[in-house]
Write a structure and sequence with these properties.
With 392 residues, the chain is α+β, with helices and mostly antiparallel strands. The chain has helices spanning 2-20, 53-59, 137-145, 154-159, 163-177, 223-233, 288-297, 331-337, 365-373, and strands at residues 41-46, 71-76, 81-89, 94-104, 111-116, 120-123, 150-151, 188-190, 204-208, 217-220, 240-244, 248-257, 260-267, 280-284, 306-314, 319-325.
Length: 392
């Protein structure tokens, strides 16, 4: 069986070379036993949408580090990856993570397992879904354990799992910028049903737990319904939040990827949950206020390379910020945003591991030396010294 797997892997390597003209198999990101060191930089892209997998290859096509090392995406979803991390691995005794990706064979004849040692990670899928079986935080802990740099940072991704944690940080922004400049919607937090004595302004939207995409949300019309719902909350150990139900004309989303901004409005869903049903999405002008919202949100949890602010434009003409979170744009959004940019900065300017810059390891040695020879200029003074050779 091992010999068959070796032969299959060699065939896959030949096909990869002919398709991409890059070395997929013979690089230090796959296993320690490779012969060619620093041949490629492997970026683990966690994307739960299967239709996006081929598109990510086009996004990273031609991307290199500043020293010319090709960047290769390894795309999978949470369910198809198995991870093991070591605090000391190989002769260098550095921390390392190895990811086994279970994928379908091109000819459809069963599955195969590819082992990858990621140099960096791009997470474009929710780390925690609705059901307990969709909780993938243990995999996130493994990436943090091995010090794999991630966009956004692993700490920020973990912080965004829980709504109250994020809303508390938004309150600090509101207090700093002022309510007029950062019109955050009022909200109440209830850690359990025992706290649900005084309700929010009715009608109110109640959001249960951590769920997104319309799950765990309902409208409460008065205090009688609120008390009835409190009895339902008693059967499980969940928190909930309550906020005023606003009669909205349309939704707003301000998206920031790197230094690129885009603003959208969404209307015509026919439902109060405007992220469900049929809607019309339209790109609109980015106003100075929208840009300020995005800039403020991008400073959350040590800095975000990818973030979005969701707001609502009411029928009264006022706008209220609902939440801030990392969006999950499809690969085409990255292509449109970064059209013409063929160099990747790994790690990114906001990437941190354990609050500090990630350990470079031998896979970045060549890139570091080349960047040092080129006298790369870093446009921020806040970066640790061992990142200054890699980021702009």
């Amino acid at each position: 069986n091992n010999n068959l797997q070796v032969r299959e892997r060699r065939k896959d390597t030949k096909r990869s070379k002919s398709m991409w003209n890059k070395l997929f198999a013979n690089n230090n990101c796959v296993t320690e036993h490779t012969k060619s060191r620093a041949a490629t930089v492997a970026v683990l892209v966690v994307d739960g949408t299967r239709a996006h997998r081929d598109l990510w290859a086009s996004v990273f096509s031609g991307c290199t580090t500043k020293s010319g090392v090709p960047v290769v995406p390894e795309v999978c979803d949470w369910d198809s990856m198995h991870l093991t991390a070591y605090s000391e691995y190989g002769a260098s005794r550095e921390a390392a993570a190895f990811v086994d990706i279970v994928e379908q064979k091109p000819d459809g004849g069963g599955t195969r397992v590819k082992t990858v040692r990621p140099n960096a990670c791009l997470i474009r899928s929710q780390v925690r879904g609705v059901t307990p079986s969709q909780d993938y935080r243990n995999l996130l802990y493994g990436l943090q354990f091995a010090g794999v740099p991630c966009v956004n940072s692993l700490q920020s991704i973990l912080s965004f799992v829980e709504r109250p944690w994020v809303f508390g940080e938004l309150l600090r922004i509101r207090d700093r910028l002022g309510r007029e400049n950062f019109p955050l919607i009022p909200q109440n937090y209830y850690p359990s049903h025992r706290s649900m004595l005084i309700g929010p302004v009715f009608p109110a939207v109640i959001k249960v737990g951590h769920c997104h995409a319309g799950h765990g949300k309902l409208v409460i019309r008065d205090h009688h319904a609120f008390q009835d719902f409190a009895s339902v909350m008693a059967i499980d150990n969940h928190y909930c939040t309550g906020e005023p139900f606003l009669d909205g004309e349309y939704d707003l989303r301000i998206q920031k990827i790197g230094n690129c901004y885009r603003a959208y409005k969404r209307s015509g869903t026919g439902q109060w949950k405007t992220n469900t049903g049929t809607s019309v999405l339209e790109e609109i002008e980015l106003t100075p206020q929208y840009k300020m919202w995005a800039d403020a949100a991008s400073q959350l949890f040590g800095g975000l390379d990818i973030c979005a602010v969701d707001a609502i434009h009411g029928t009264d003409g006022k706008e209220y910020i609902l939440e801030a979170r990392p969006p999950l744009p499809p690969p085409t959004a990255f292509e449109q945003t970064h059209a013409g940019e063929r160099h990747c900065d790994w790690p990114g300017p906001h990437t941190r591991v354990g609050g500090h810059a990630p350990h470079e390891g031998p896979h970045f040695a060549e890139a570091r030396a080349s960047a040092a020879r080129s006298a790369v200029t870093v446009h921020t003074n806040s970066l640790p010294s061992n990142l200054k050779s890699f980021v702009r």
